Amino acid sequence: MGTIGEAFSSAFYLIAHPSAELLTIVLRTLRISGGALLIAAAFGVPLGAALALRKFPLKGTLLSVLNAFMGLPPVVVGLLVYLVLSRSGPLGFMSLLYTPSAMVMAQFILALPIVAALTVSAVAGVDPSIGLAARTLGATPIERTIKIIAEARYGILAAVIAALGRVMAEVGAILIVGGNIKGHTRVMTTAIAMETDKGDFTLALALGIILLLLAILINMALHHVQQKGVRGRGE
């Protein structure tokens, strides 16, 4: 590698004139992370809403476990998914190890606690008078629940965006279960690590810049949604 300036210049040139490999890696990253996020939202939002609105034994313990799982070490998640999907594991017959599906599964496990726990906070923060007013007007329990969730929509959306930021930057779990196979399971984070080891700093920097820009956009969207939610509560 020449100077740092030359490396960045080459990286920006590659971004402006993307190769097929660069585009494939970026699109695969978005597809895998987006798929994991959609599944996590489909399970996490109802779970979080139920935990916030229902009273049952050991609810506090379950919430504590859920909050603790927000900080799950990615490599531990990757190891557990690997053991489940390996030939001797309970799902080994499905032959999912070293496939995008295995990577989606690992990222789903990382995203689910974030979506669910932050949804609990969003739904629990809704003014109780909204549910009482809906009950007074004759709304059914399902209708009241829908109304409360609608009021918490900005907080729930913020939960989903926060989970996206987590999975987009993840490397440990997907490296273990995906194997970083070129043209099949290689995504931005794993490609950056590998290209750096190889000394190909141009591709590594280009992917790093794209990943950084995506992270900035995600955080800007999260801030916007949070501010919108604050303004909505103030009205």
Characterization of the model:
The chain has one domain (20-234): MetI-like fold (Orthogonal Bundle). Helix content is 78%, strand content 0%. It has helices at residues 4-16, 20-53, 59-69, 74-85, 100-124, 128-136, 141-151, 153-168, 172-178, 188-198, 201-234. The longest helix has 34 residues, at 20-53. The chain is globular, with a radius of gyration of 21 Å. The mean pLDDT is 90.
**What is the percent of helical residues?**
over 70%
CATH class placement: Mainly Alpha
End-to-end Cα distance, whole Å, is 56 Å
Order of helices and strands: HHHHHHHHHHH
DSSP strand tally: 0
Backbone CA Rg: 21 Å
- Per DSSP, the total helix count is 11
Low-pLDDT stretches: none
Q: Tell me, briefly, the overall form.
A: globular
- By helix and strand content, what is the structural category? mainly alpha
- CATH homologous superfamily caption: MetI-like
CATH arch. level architecture: Orthogonal Bundle
Return the domain count: 1
**CATH topology tier name:** MetI-like fold
Average pLDDT number = 90
Major beta sheet summary: none
Percent strand:
under 5%
